Amino acid sequence: MRVYLDHAATTPMVPAAVGAMLPFLTGPAGNASGVHADARRARQAVDEARERIAALVGVEFGEVVFTGGGTESDNLAVAGVLEAVLADSSSRSRPARPAHRTPPPSGTGTNTGTVVCAAMEHHAVLEACRAAATRHGIELREVPTDRSGVVDLAALERACTPDVVLVSVMAVNNEIGTVQPLAEVAAIAHQGAPGAVLHSDAVQAAPWMDLAPIAALADLVSVSAHKFGGPQGVGALLVRDGTPLRPVARGGGQERDRRSGTLNVAGIVGMAAALEVAVGDLGARGPAVTALRDRLADGVAVAVGEVGETGDRDRRVPGTVHLRFAGIEGEAMVVLLDQLGVSVSAGAACSSGAVGPSHVLSSMGFEGPAASSGVRFSLGPDSTAAEIDWAVAAVGDAVARLRN
After folding, report:
1. Parallel/antiparallel/unpaired status of strands 235-239 and 64-67
2. What is the CA 59 to chain-centroid distance, rounded?
3. 160 belongs to the catalytic site
4. What's the pLDDT tens digit per position in 87-109?
5. Distance between CA atoms of 332 and 32, rounded to whole angstroms?
6. Phi, psi of 303 (to 5 degrees)
7. 3-state SS, one letter per residue, for the chain
8. 141: Cβ contacts below 8 Å, ≥ 6 apart
9. pLDDT tens digit string along 257-273?
């Protein structure tokens, strides 16, 4: 048996997405930026997909900006906001408040340039913030995480001062699966940094949570299709009206001059179809997958002992459990489990190959070997009890071998 427990890295495509894409993969070619009949057909498909996605996530049609995936979406959010706000260093005034926000009271301070993000952010946000801070010569404040796997709200409150121009806190952590308290984050950011733009990486939230409440709280929200049954290589940045944003990729001015480049028509229609399936199944699959996730964690605890479950179980999305194995390198576990027929990760999939301590665990206060001992098991809607039991047995075998 081969057991796939790496859905947080990428998911199998759902049949609805494959079916929606096929006409644009095998039918007549058409560039959605053109004017002839084939181009208009492609443009109509993109517009219909944009309309469906906007309705599913609770934003307006023009607030959906298609990208090449979650990483590009995160980078556009961070770099695009800072370019818009700080590019002219001689005029660093507070950006116009997005139309969907209540304007701050008069007399608040002006932004001189500081960025705040959670230290547990995906590298697509973390490295983008670091690079942008260096480029603009401004301060970056990385907020630590508590042992439950949640951003430290007291530290966030201290970090959010009137000079802050951007706050980025993810909706769900990609490594340990903990849901972040975005309502509290938004309240703190708007109170302490009333002119700041709030961005949230919701890539890991989309398979398990309603995105509409997230989009109602944040000015910018990043999603990626292949995390919820869509194709790889396509995503979106939800840009609420009035949010300052400059393009990072320049060219033909597509996406209302916010992201130039030929649109991935097949990928976009596949993304819309997959999101409809994900949203429609939210109520049914969550409890079932949660039960399997807990069966896995409890079974491993019985089988091996000396295992730590990272983060508060009640605060995690249904599909993810992160375990720390005392005295064992997480990468070694991943390699051995692969040989035993179980696919898992030691951290973010796009960081694999760079062996070292987890920055997420480090942000939670884990040090030394403990920060390198974690393994992420991530389930999907099609995971079964038989697969979970097989994985538990394989973990027991792997731990016995590595500890001996």
Report:
1. antiparallel
2. 18
3. no
4. 754 444 444 445 555 433 333 33
5. 46
6. -75, -35
7. CCEECECCCCCCCCHHHHHHHHHHHHCCCCCCCCCCHHHHHHHHHHHHHHHHHHHHHCCCHHHEEEECCHHHHHHHHHHHHHHHHHCCCCCCCCCCCCCCCCCCCCCCCCCCCEEEEECCCCHHHHHHHHHHHHHHCCEEEEECECCCCCECHHHHHHHCCCCEEEEECCCECCCCCEECCHHHHHHHHHHHCCCCEEEEECCCCCCCCCHHHHHHHCCEEEEEHHHCCCCCCCEEEEECCCCCCCCCCCCCCHHHHCCCCCCCHHHHHHHHHHHHHHHHHHHHHHHHHHHHHHHHHHHHHHHHCCEEECCCHHHECCCEEEEEECCCCHHHHHHHHHHCCEECECCCHHHCCCCCCCHHHHHCCCCHHHHHCEEEEECCCCCCHHHHHHHHHHHHHHHHHHHC
8. 114, 115, 116, 117, 159, 164
9. 899 899 999 999 999 99
pTM as predicted: 0.92
Per the structure block, which two tokens stand in for 201? 């990486």
Catalytic residue among 117, 129, 160, 350: 350
The pLDDT of residue 349 is: 47
Tell me the backbone φ, ψ of residue 374, rounded to 5 degrees: -90, 150
CATH classification of 3-11+282-403, choosing from 3.40.50.720, 3.90.1150.10, 3.40.50.740, 3.65.10.10? 3.90.1150.10
Report residue 69: phi and psi, to 5°: 145, -175
CATH class of 15-276: alpha beta
Q: Write phi, then psi, for 10 (nearest 5 degrees).
A: -165, 150
Give the start-to-end residue ranges of the domains of the chain: 3-11+282-403, 15-276
Q: Which residues of the chain have pLDDT under 50?
A: 89-97, 102-111, 349-350, 352
From CA 134, how far away is CA 130, in angstroms rounded? 6
